Amino acid sequence: MIQPIMKDIFFLNQPSEPATKADAKVAQDLLDTLAAHKQECVGMAANMIGVRKRIIIVDTGFLPIIMYNPVIVSQKGAYETEEGCLSLVGVRPTTRYEEIEVAYEDINFQKCKKKYTGFVAQIIQHEVDHLAGKII
Question: What distance in Å separates the CA atoms of residue 32 and residue 49, rounded to the nearest whole number?
Answer without folding.
Answer: 11
